[in-house]
Each structure stands twice: as C-alpha cells, then as structure tokens.
Amino acid sequence: MPLGEFDLIERYFRKPAESLRLARGDAPVGIGDDAALLQPPSGQLLVAALDTLVEGRHFPLGSSAASIGHRALAVNLSDLAAMGAEPAWFLLALTLPAAQPEFLEGFAAGMLRLAAAHRVALVGGDTTSGPLSVSVQALGFVPPGKALRRAGGKAGDLLYVSGTPGDAAAGLQLELAQPQSSAVASTAQRRLRDRFLYPEPRVALGLALRGVASACIDVSDGLAADAGKLALASNCGVRIDLERIRFSAELLATHDTAAAARFALAGGDDYELCFTVSPARASEIDALAANVKCQVTCIGVLEDGRALRVLERGAAVPIDVDGYDHFAHR
Ligand code: ADP
Ligand code: MG
C-alpha cells in the first residue's frame, strides 16, 4: 500500500521532530495544525532565510538522501549564521517523485541530525509530488542593532574567512566523478567529499562575531564572488592575498596549489563565513575563534574604490568573477 501523505509526515517528520520542539518550549503548535505558532523572545528581531535545492542543479543526481537532507538545512543555517542570528525553527517544503521509505528515512535522518546539533525544531512544511526539490525556511533571532550585514565594512578593514575554503568544490568534483563510491576513494578524497555532502554551518562563529565583525557573508559561490558581494554592499573594493588562504591538508594532498586556489576562489559550496574586522579589533579575533573552535584566517583587506583584486605575493592574478575563465586557465 502506498504511503499516504499524512502517514509520511507523521512517520518521517512529526514524530522524530517532536521532542526537540517540546524541549525548546517556544513553539506551542508545530506540525499537524494549519500553521505553527511560534514565540520569539521579546525584544528580538526575527531573522528569516529560505533556500531551495533542486536535484541536478544544487546537488548531483543520485546524491545520498542523508546528504540532501543535511545540506538543505545547512545552507539555511549558514545564512542565519552570516547574519549573526541564533537559529530556532525551520519549515520544510518537500517535493518528491515518489514516497520511497529508504529515501525518506535517510533524508529525515540527515536533516534532523543537523537540526538536533543546533537545537532547531522542525515546526511545519508542505509535501507535494513532482521532481525532487527541497526548500527549507529557517527562522532565528537577533537583538536589534546586532545583526551582521554585508554592508558595514570600511576601507582598511581586514578580510577573514573561516575553515579551509576550496574543499567542498573539490569534493563535488569527486562526487560527480564517482558518486557514493567510498570504497575506491582515499581518506583525503572521502573527507573532501564529506565537506561538500555535509557542510557545517558556522552558527557559533556568527554569534561570536556580533558586535565585532563590521560585515559578514557566507561563502556559497566561491570566495572571490562572495568577498566581492560583501565589498560591493560595503561600498568598498577588496584585495585577496592568495598566498594567505589556508588550504586543508586533504586538498593539498590531492591537488596542486593552482587547482586548490581555483576551488577556493571560484568553486563555492564551502558555507564558511567571510567577514571583515576593523584593524582596532583584529587582536580579538584569535581568541574569539578559539572559543568557538573554528579556525579563521586573515586573507586580505577592504580597499578604497570598487575593484576586486586577487594578488599572489603582490602580483595580480587575473580573475573573472562571473566566468572565472582567466583564472581557470592560469
Ligand atoms: P494544509 O493542507 O493545511 O496545508 P498539510 O496537509 O499540507 O496541511 O500539512 C499538514 C501538517 O503537516 C501541517 O502542519 C504542515 O505544516 C505539516 N507538514 C506538511 N509537510 C511537512 C513536511 N515535509 N515537514 C514538516 N511538516 C510538514
Ligand atoms: Mg490547512
């Protein structure tokens, strides 16, 4: 007997999500009514983000169900992190070609594992049939005046990035070449692939950067494009010093530095935070990052003007942020 919509929601989403909603105590009505009832802390602003993942476009055809579930929530938590918001709840709009229990089990497990790690409760959604597509709306809070914005950076502010950019793009390339074949992959390859399949949203870092960072964005389209967006919103230019970007041991074990740089600058999918800090506050950053157990690296600076410049030991590296063509053939 095919699984009805009610049973599907009940089994894979309402039941496993219920304990987290109850534990939070701020969502008196969750899944099951016509809409959820949510109680934000008084005096705080509600922060809302929504991102859709479409099969074949935002994840490869045949990706593991757990990864699809994880990523759909992770990319939205990353947007909240980039605003310095504390995530609280999320809604899920799921479009499925068929109600396959194996897929649904993996998908819900991947999504709800990440939800539990960040104490965000699934409080509602929609389920329809059609080509596989997943939309998540994440909701969180920030005190007035404390949100991190793309605007706010000033010429002279130092540019930082968290983690080791480039891993996810390298991982995606591996996943496209050998989908789900962990048997033949080296440890380094598996780790890179996991950085694409299971990105870790930098929620604690975003919270710690409240009142410290002058501007912030999460890196979804590659460091060059996203640092460029931050700079544009801040009415500045930006310089990235290529030799300062910290690549992971796994990326360097499997690729030369030109390929690593290309993945980091133009690859995307890292979901790291890219942020700016005034020179006067830069001395606070190491301790702040250590506190939230997240590596951050200063990779450049905001400048006067509007240009996006990538330098390698002082020499200009040609980069086309829209096409990346020059850089790709370096
Ligand atoms: P309605 O027709 O009133 O929109 P639905 O039958 O679509 O109601 O949904 C019933 C309940 O299940 C609602 O509370 C809705 O928020 C929730 N829901 C539906 N699909 C999902 C899903 N994929 N994940 C979480 N909650 C869902
Ligand atoms: Mg209704």
Termini separation comes to 57 Å
Cofactors, ions and other ligands in the entry: adenosine-5'-diphosphate, magnesium ion
- Radius of gyration based on Cα positions: 20 Å
Order of helices and strands: HEHEHEEEHHHEHEHHEHEEEH
**What structural class do helix, strand and pairing data support?**
alpha+beta
Q: Strand order across the biggest sheet?
A: 6-8-5-9-7-10-11
Number of separate helices? 11
Poorly predicted runs of 5 or more residues = 323-330
- For the secondary structure, the number of strands is 11
Determine the mean pLDDT: 94
Q: What can be said about the biggest beta sheet? A: 7 strands, mixed
Helix fraction, binned, reads 25-40%
Outline the structure in words.
- The chain is α+β, with helices and mostly antiparallel strands.
- The protein is 37% helix and 22% strand.
- It has helices spanning 5-24, 65-82, 101-117, 167-177, 187-197, 203-208, 223-233, 249-254, 257-266, 285-291, 325-328; strands spanning 45-54, 86-96, 121-129, 133-142, 158-162, 215-218, 237-241, 273-277, 296-303, 308-312, 315-316.
- It has a seven-stranded mixed beta sheet, with helices on both faces.
- The chain starts with a helix and ends with a helix.
- It binds adenosine-5'-diphosphate (ADP) and magnesium ion.
- Adenosine-5'-diphosphate (ADP) binds at residues 9, 13, 31-34, 92, 94, 122, 124-127.
